[in-house]
Specification:
The structure is a homodimer of 387-residue chains. The first copy, chain A, is α+β, with helices and mostly antiparallel strands and 387 residues long. The first copy, chain A, has helices at residues 23-37, 59-65, 83-96, 132-139, 145-160, 164-178, 192-197, 225-228, 248-252, 262-273, 290-300, 308-313, 330-334, 340-351; strands spanning 5-12, 47-51, 69-71, 73-78, 102-109, 112-113, 116-117, 200-202, 205-206, 216-224, 236-243, 245-247, 282-284, 364-371, 376-383.
């Protein structure tokens, strides 16, 4: 089946330690740039989907500030780290249903103030303490994402023999990519030794296992594939998509830390696209932690369950590797804008716009979004050909 | 074209001055009841869409508390008063795309504490003061929805000669319906004189022009029409839908107060359903204020622009009238759960479950959702026949 939906525009603000603009201002700038990139003008936009990070409650305000009129689709959505992918999916379905023709999806955040983090929007979990289980978790010091993911990673280490050095291989590979990207916040190459020497955040996570905090905004223009072919840039076809939200069994059950929600959304999205992992040229994976990359690769089927450590340490992820992954440095070394990080780099690579970091073969690009504590997951399959 | 989507289940908690449960607890109860109403069990649910009112950030928590597993669609969405309709639309498109088969949409709120309102979730606008225009508005005392809508209503009165007594006719008609509904918070019949004597809230709005504040939750189960026919209750077919978000021109432009976003979403939804206003048997309209009902009826085309006052005063809306509207007492006399109020009563009437308030002809039921200050709008066309 030929893809009927495409990403026709990408807009990015300056990202990283960029001070001054509020999240809504970053969002507005990203929307303007995405629309211009597509060769469109703002009055062409008839749908706006806003990721509810720090930009909460600004939906109609954003539309008005941009002078958007008579929108036929407008909402703020959150599924945490899976939101960016989910917005593209929502836009695709609305276009298919005839609700709208040109939908802009935007994520922006501005947690950094004058160089000091005021805390990312997705910081401490507000619902901790809601139940007996969570009260106990909070009382044990597990008050944020770092500690929760650390426990998940530790479980993977204990069960499969995964090592901190293997996690480090992810960080090293991503930094190697980042060193080639003008968009990346951290561009100095690192070694496994650097990773091992970086300070503890929450054992087994060193500093270099954890994502950055960034200000900025990213927007994409989604439209029909037919229309995208008449616009300014080569269409990035949306070949397949899915979500997976496993619920209680992965958090409290025997699989905690061993399997992620990628095991649900990955195979479903690849099935929709009519591909297998063998067809994937590039991966852009949500990497709030090095561990997340490793387990996503396992759950997507790039290696057997439990063999993710060996897989990432084999050198496949970095420049020159067989499975180029997080080619902009990801959230670890590039910039952290939730699911908009892998989405933006996915569009760049599919288009062949990656400059010094461009991957030679980029016909099929997988983009993942992961949120909560392995609770939310979205997958997009992007491609240069409609299939 | 035959409808491919239906609402198969409705779940409502006790609504009104119901103290004790939190919004997430109301939400969970509503979901359980909706699923049971459809003749399904919780493991059948593979999608959950949560209206982001007071229930913010509980999406995965709600899923886990209910024991939902392996969801293929999960998000929290806000488009303010248009959200409930928008969720049903989102669910419909996801089912059509094969993302999920059984999607529950839920809204819950619990602003009332021990009989005293702690403020509805949608209270003072948080984005006031964001721009010069809004700073001026806030400085003039326009800090909440009451004052903003009052100004819109006043404009309608000044331009078209609409009177307070005509607004009162909406309140009287809805109370007459409420007197027949066991779900309604206010059931004592009122007269135009009672309306006129009720205290000022924000001129020209008397108390009886303004919606209630309520605790409670409402959920609906959306599935394919084919599947709904095999379930426990008669399918409520989703025949058409649309959204309309006019943006800057209606707020700041010459049309402020004279035309609402219903003028965008209503015609589009009726076109999708292949109907005209002549085919509509029942209206369930978002009635945060009496004025909203009047202008929605104009913008949907039930009367000419500017003639809404005469139309509603002619007695068409109440029991025995030609256009039964807000048959559960609406948000003015029934209960206020954002767009879940008109949605819930729309499902009840389409099914013929209205008891003493059931309308005889109920083949086609219009449901509206209105949010912001006439900024957000959604319309659903529900029906007993797939068409």
């Amino acid at each position: 089946m030929s893809a009927d939906i495409a990403i026709a525009g990408l807009g990015m603000t300056e990202v990283g330690k960029v001070f001054g603009p509020t999240a809504p201002q970053f969002a507005a700038q990203a929307v303007r740039r995405a629309v211009a990139d597509a060769g469109l003008i703002l009055p062409d936009v008839d749908g706006l989907l806003v990721s509810a990070g720090a930009t909460r409650d600004v939906t109609i305000g954003l539309a008005k500030d941009l002078g958007l009129k008579d929108l036929q689709l407008l909402a703020q959505v959150t599924a945490f780290g899976s939101t960016a992918g989910a917005l593209v999916q929502y836009a695709a379905m609305a276009i298919r249903a005839g609700m709208a023709e040109t939908v802009v999806c935007v994520h922006a955040d501005a947690p950094l103030r004058d160089g000091t983090s005021a805390g990312a929007s997705y910081g401490a979990r507000r619902d901790l303490g809601a139940t007996g289980y969570r009260t106990a978790v909070a009382a044990a010091g597990m008050t944020g994402a770092n500690q929760m993911y650390a426990m998940a990673a530790r479980r993977h280490m204990l069960t499969f023999g995964t090592t901190s050095e293997q996690f480090g291989a992810v960080a090293v590979a991503e930094r190697a990519w980042a060193s080639r990207s003008p968009l990346a916040q951290l561009r100095d190459p690192i070694t496994i030794e650097d990773h091992q020497r970086s300070r503890w955040i929450a054992e087994p996570f060193h500093l270099f296992d954890c994502c950055l905090v960034s200000n900025g905004g990213v927007a994409v223009v989604v439209t029909s594939a037919a229309r995208a072919r008449d616009l300014a840039r080569p269409p990035v076809y949306v070949l397949g998509w899915a979500q997976g939200h496993p619920g209680v069994q992965l958090e409290r059950g025997s699989q905690f830390g061993l399997v992620s929600a990628a095991s649900l959304s990955g195979p479903a999205a690849m099935k929709m696209a009519g591909i297998t992992t063998n067809d994937v040229d590039v991966c852009e994976l949500y990497d709030c932690y090095t561990y997340t990359v490793l387990i996503t690769l396992e759950d997507y089927g790039f290696c057997a369950k439990g063999e993710g450590g060996e897989f990432v340490a084999s050198g496949v992820l970095g420049p020159g590797g067989a499975l180029p992954t997080n080619t902009g440095g990801g959230q670890l070394s590039g910039y952290y804008l939730w699911g908009a990080t892998p989405l933006s780099e996915g569009v760049i690579q599919t288009r062949g716009d990656g400059g010094d970091r461009q991957v030679d073969r980029h016909d099929v690009v997988l983009v993942s979004g992961n949120g909560g504590i392995l609770d939310y997951h979205s997958t997009l399959v992007l491609g240069t050909n409609p299939g």
